[in-house]
């Protein structure tokens, strides 16, 4: 695993510097960070989704009151941050929230957090070698996590058996899905690269496009109008000053632009932020389920008769599944069992789809065949006679044209 070299501070001083943005709630912090900021949080075992949001926001350093890698399971967030050149300092303790002031400029050097010449707090700066070693050690303890996963899966199946087995509670969409391919876009793992791989497929096959929370903004940014937006609590969080769709909140523009909106609610039919849709005048259908919102989108496509479901930015490997480390893991696993052979990861589509045959493709093949036939005929005695006759006729035409001008 190769990591980029760390960049010096823009003012030429050693270490990295930036403005402090801190919050004990990671979801609130992600809505406030700006490019060049130093994010201060308290997040044990940072997951890859949060790390991707921090990278998208353009932070230069992340200071963690807890440990980035506790060793309970192989979480993928620190590796992604380090690969992006972000400085990682962990185990500074919760006192950092009282010692630092939000919006203050700081400098980080060798694990020390400084304001001017004063050292405010100190922690441990993670190196690339340490991240690799800790991840290898964490993978050795996966048996315990798999046992917990088995228990959570059983409980989720008991609660949602009617939804998973019979499809009860899934709303019928106005957008025709029956017999059509569907692309579900989540702002998750490698979503930008996945969407680039699908550019030709989307242009030629015209699938139904479903954006999950800020995945709808990803589609709009790629010049695709989402047919359906599946939005939940996180996506409907109020836009504060400086917040954007990159920090987890769906933009008003995409909610108004989408052809259809489906609101993910809890079993009681409530969703925090649902009043935002009412205020915007957006009509929506409710989908009550306890699973993760990306799983709700997959079930929506499957139950409504999709012929194929292509997932962009979702979890595909064992490490990515375990990286979530929450009850949503069970819903992800069981949803994929429900969707079954319909589900294809976006990374595999270019290997399976060669593109639609166009008329000019056939024209090239026909032209190549005619050229090959002409060469073969020209090599025969008959071809030589034809060539002489054609050459003579062309010479006569040229002489006649020259005679017109002389």
Walk me through the topology.
Layout: E1 16-22, H1 26-30, E2 38-41, H2 48-57, E3 61-64, H3 77-83, E4 87-90, H4 96-99, E5 105-109, E6 112-115, E7 118-122, E8 124-125, H5 128-139, H6 142-159, H7 161-166, E9 181-186, H8 191-197, H9 199-205, E10 208-212, H10 215-221, E11 228-231, H11 252-257, E12 260-265, H12 274-280, E13 284-288, H13 293-303, E14 308-312, H14 318-323, H15 328-339, E15 343-345, H16 349-352, H17 359-378, H18 381-405
Parallel strand pairs: 1-2, 2-3, 3-4, 9-10, 9-14, 10-11, 11-12, 12-13, 14-15
Antiparallel strand pairs: 1-5, 4-8, 5-6, 6-7
Helix pairs in contact: 2-3, 6-15, 13-15
Task: Tell me, briefly, the overall form.
Answer: extended
> Using only CA atoms, what is the Rg?
29 Å
Termini separation comes to 78 Å
Mean pLDDT: 83
In the CATH classification, which architecture of the largest domain applies? 3-Layer(aba) Sandwich
Helix content: 40-55%
CATH topology label of the largest domain: Rossmann fold
CATH class placement of the largest domain: Alpha Beta
Describe the structure in brief:
Helix content is 43%, strand content 17%. The protein has 406 residues and is an alpha/beta fold. The relative contact order is 0.10.
